[in-house]
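Problem: given the chain below (286 residues), write out its structure.
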Amino acid sequence: MTSLPTDICDFLSTEFTHLVVGGGTAGLVVATRLAEHEDTVVGILEAGLPAYDEPGINIPGRFCETLGTKHDWQFATVPQPGFNGRAIPWPRGKVLGGSGALNIMTWNRACKEDYDAWEELGNEGWGWEGMLYPSQFGSSHQYWHKTLNRLGVETNRSHFSGSNVGAWTTVTSVHPTRKERSYSTNAYFQPNAGRSNLILLSGATVQEVLLDPCEEEWLAKGVRFTYQGKEHSVYTKGEVIICAGSVQSPQLLELSGIGNPEVLEAAGIEVKIDNPAVGENLQDHM
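Solution.
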């Protein structure tokens, strides 16, 4: 199911319990799961547009065609000394579904400690052991495995367990029967787009989380955003959830006055919450 375009006036007048900034992998999952509760009204603000019928997204064999297009923010790194001063392209999805709509559909597990830390924070079942699940090989990869097996290379069916020696196939986000890319748009949002308490505004670029002082702290009350060239503000009775990706989530925090005071003051932004960890320690492959 596809959602009908949202009228901006209707969006602004809605009493939201949650606002989700970013309709990417995390944002659409969080928003649709929240909307399962009838007492919630969830608004999603996504800078990109839906691309439900885009062959470059849906057909697995056409991956990478959308890189450098309107569906890509087309970011680049600063010049890298290790690459002889070259700036490296850094694709990020500017489309409903986010970078999951652009990637090459492979999935790898993070470090065991990362998952176990989630569970230690009180999220039962979110540890390393609780997040394991069986995988299967596609028909073409079965031939590949048989060929390597005959050459003496054994199949490693537990390559996520700490050893990736042998023949193995990484998990791919391709629908097992439709053979289409499976990503947050068609796996989470479209099946739930008919919910009256799940409202998407695409083409909306959030510029700031609106913070109000509250007993010597700051309370997120809404967001300021641009839509069709005009600036608007929308508010929530509950939470603002930032799911703008690994690049733009810290950027949005900094634009809202949350971050390293040296960075914010240099940009002329009022420091509301001093947190020097914002925007630091990101590691990614290029």
